Amino acid sequence: MRDYFAAMAADADLADFFTEDVMWVNVESGEQFSGHAAVRDYIGALHTTLFDARPEGRSLDVTDTHAFLEGDFVGISTDVRVPYCLVYDLDDAGISQMRLYMSFGSLPRRVAEASGESVPEHSGS
Questions:
Q1: How many structural domains are present in the chain?
Q2: What is the CATH number of the domain that holds 25?
């Protein structure tokens, strides 16, 4: 996992760390991506296109079969921090699945708050 994160920091190709049938799952929406290229491209888009941010890890726990990463996506051009948890399934061939637990729905509110815009309060009805 250390080599994987070093490759990510260096903008290297992450596909070498994946199993042939690797799967990415956005748990909030159920959206899935499978295969080396699709997962690699989605990770790149997540960090640049979907939200111009860099991941900042707070804790990483690795076992023989799983890795658990908790952190924040920190906006590059804004002061936005979005917490996330990423669970990796591991086997001898590499990373076989990644499940991202993150509230994409809170992103517009967080961006508005960081830019100083007024955000309507939720009525809770």
A1: 1
A2: 3.10.450.50
| Structural domain range at position 62 | 2-113
Residue 103, number of CB atoms within 10 A of its CB: 12
Q: Considering the entire predicted model, what is its pTM? A: 0.80
Q: How far apart are CA 76 and CA 47, in angstroms?
A: 10
What string of pLDDT tens digits covers the 125 residues of the chain?
989 988 888 888 898 999 999 999 999 889 999 999 999 998 888 877 766 777 888 999 999 999 999 998 887 777 778 889 999 999 999 999 999 998 766 665 666 666 666 555 544 44
29 and 104 Cβ atoms separated by less than 8 Å: yes
Listed in sequence order, the residues at least 6 apart from 49 whose beta carbon sits closer than 8 Å to its beta carbon are none
Kindly state whether residue 122 falls inside one of the protein's structural domains.
no
Residue among 61, 45, 65 at smallest CA distance from 53: 45
